Amino acid sequence: MEIFFRKELLEYREPEHPECPQRLSAIVNFLEKKGKKQLHSFEQVSETLLLEVHSQRLVNMVKNNNFFDPDTPNIPDIYFYACLSAGGAVAAAQSALDRRDACALIRPPGHHAGKDFLGGFCYFNNMAIAATHCLKTVKKVAILDLDGHHGNGTESIFKDVDRVIFVSIHQHPAYPGTGLVSFSNCYNFPVKPNTAFSDYKIFLVEAIGLIRRFAPDILGISLGFDTHLDDPLLQLRFVDSDYYHMAKMIASGVSCPVFIVLEGGYDIASIGNSFFCFLSGWEKTKNRNG
Ligand SMILES: [Zn+2]
Fold first, then answer.
1. Are 40 and 2 within 8 A, CB to CB?
2. How many domains does the chain fold into?
């Protein structure tokens, strides 16, 4: 698994906000401690690609710091950081197109941003931008959203796009309140608060089955760690080692190249080990198979 990261993504912060730089530094420091290979750099997304997903209105709002959202802070230079984050997703997607599975360790997250709206700590939809990049080269892209929240932005961008399926497992009730039903090419699995991985994985098996039947050329995973027991924003009950089993299930169930984009996850104490568990499960499965 190739890992993409740039330390500039640690530069911005909003006091008291859960989407803080420590989320990402905790993961990177943990990987370093475990002697995990080098991290790859990347560039900002091009404005041309950005405008294939988002409206000029939204791009201008973010660029000119001309917006207000109670959850999604208006921070100096946030346009630069949002474009850099999206660039990480595109770099991971390109790596997968070159048949090397990859993960973008990025912030701000993206899956709540739609074509013409921001929200939920997200400015631009990193996953949608990366998937749009893939659709220039391949025919079919599947998106699996395993953040604890529903990826309403990604769903709104790709609904009825027949070369894409969107599959999401998420807590309900919770922000943003969407994702209760499946329709068209969008498959939603809402789970109740207090759900542990032992129950969640029944839906994951179903989600993997849907993806296998779609037979995508590439799979993008929106990966969030706010499904963790100690996460301050949600009430799901994953423990660190559940991410190991989650990764094994996906890596053994899906045969196409995969890119992963980091979304949420706000418990600093557990996010490093949880990510490392996911990576270990992934690499263990892939090394055995390949
Ligand atoms: Zn989330």
1. yes
2. 1
Question: Among this protein's residues, is 112 annotated catalytic?
Answer: yes
Query: The whole model's pTM is what?
Result: 0.98
CA proximity to 128, closest of 14, 206, 20, 50: 50
Say yes or no to pLDDT of 290 above 90: no
* Alpha carbon of 264 to ligand 1 centroid (Å): 4
Q: What is the CATH number of the domain that holds 116?
A: 3.40.800.20
Q: What is the CA radius of gyration of the chain?
A: 17
In angstroms, what is the span from residue 289 Cα to ligand 1's centroid? 31
Query: Cα(227)–Cα(147) distance, rounded to whole angstroms?
Result: 7
**What is residue 289's predicted lDDT score, i.e. its pLDDT?**
62
How remote is the CA of residue 265 from the centroid of ligand 1, in Å?
6
Domain that holds residue 122: 2-11+19-289
* Whole-number pLDDT of residue 159: 98
- Bridge partners (DSSP) of residue 171 are 191
pLDDT at 115: 98
Region of residue 86 (left: phi > 0; alpha: psi -120 to 50; beta: else): alpha
How crowded is the C-beta side of 263, counted as CA atoms within 13 Å?
A: 30
Quickly list DSSP for 127-152. HHHHHHHHTTT-S-EEEEE-SSS--H
Q: Which of 111, 112, 133, 149 is catalytic?
A: 112
- Per-residue pLDDT averaged across 149-161, rounded? 98
Provide the β-strand partners of residue 4.
40, 104
How far is C-alpha 179 from the geometric centre of its chain's CA atoms?
16
Q: How far is the CA of 49 from the centre of ligand 1 (A)?
A: 25
The residue-averaged pLDDT of 42-68 equals 98
**Does residue 257 contact residue 218 with C-beta atoms inside 8 Å?**
yes
